[in-house]
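Supplementary Methods. Inverse-folding protocol.

Structures were first reduced to a discrete structure-token string of length 235. This string, shown here, constituted the complete conditioning input.
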């Protein structure tokens, strides 16, 4: 039986302006190690075969020295420069994959608490459904606001999920979706369409249903200084 190969694209090109720090959030330390280290370690020790690390412009050599070499990651097959927006970075990461690969995991490097069980659940789902995203049901009641800041409606909480990463897709599906996005980018911007995650690109351009997969409430994204304090507790 032919081996199924997987590649994880780990995004570490963000500036993290809400962290109120001169150091990009993916390089801030949790218990002496960079935020980025933890997600790379999880993929390194998982079923994933190869990793593409997408970093900020001019940070390639720094990452090779301070992340790859320092911690001995062996599955990182390419370090590439990201783009202006998150979706540009994802597209560049996908285009970098010139090796055999059937499924692509896309993960935010600022989510350090991805674990093996989440990866395995997502892999099982993508093999069945071709597209899946990790997330968790919301705990709080959600209100939809109108333009004036009043409550417009209250959706059924049982149907609402907070979306996380990784988001996982059949390679041909996500590659085609992102090429369509880049081709129509100007029109989408003119229409006010904002691309916030990878599943949205597949939903919009490919009309493929995306399966929700249970993640973890600990799978937080490091966005504010408070998140870093929570991360210290989790570690």
């Amino acid at each position: 039986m032919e081996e199924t190969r997987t590649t994880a694209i780990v995004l570490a090109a963000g500036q993290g302006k809400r962290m109120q720090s001169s150091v990009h959030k993916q390089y801030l330390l949790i218990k002496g190690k960079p935020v980025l280290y933890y997600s790379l370690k999880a993929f390194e020790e998982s079923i994933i075969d190869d990793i593409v690390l997408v970093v900020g412009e001019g940070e390639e050599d720094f990452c090779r020295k301070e992340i790859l070499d320092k911690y001995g990651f062996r599955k990182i097959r390419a370090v590439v420069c990201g783009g202006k927006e998150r979706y540009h970075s994802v597209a560049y990461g996908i285009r970098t994959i010139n090796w055999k690969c059937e499924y692509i995991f896309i993960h935010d490097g600022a989510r350090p608490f991805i674990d093996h069980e989440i990866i395995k659940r997502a892999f099982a789902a993508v093999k069945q459904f071709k597209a899946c995203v990790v997330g968790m049901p919301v705990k709080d009641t959600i209100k939809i606001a109108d333009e004036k800041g009043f409550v417009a409606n209250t959706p059924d909480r049982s149907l609402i999920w907070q979306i996380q990463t990784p988001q996982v897709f059949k390679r041909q599906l996500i590659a085609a979706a992102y090429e369509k996005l880049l081709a129509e980018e100007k029109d989408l911007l003119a229409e006010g369409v904002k691309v916030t995650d990878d599943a949205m690109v597949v939903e919009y351009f490919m009309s493929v249903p995306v399966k929700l997969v249970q993640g973890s409430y600990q799978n937080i994204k490091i966005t504010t200084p408070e998140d870093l304090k929570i991360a210290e507790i989790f570690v």
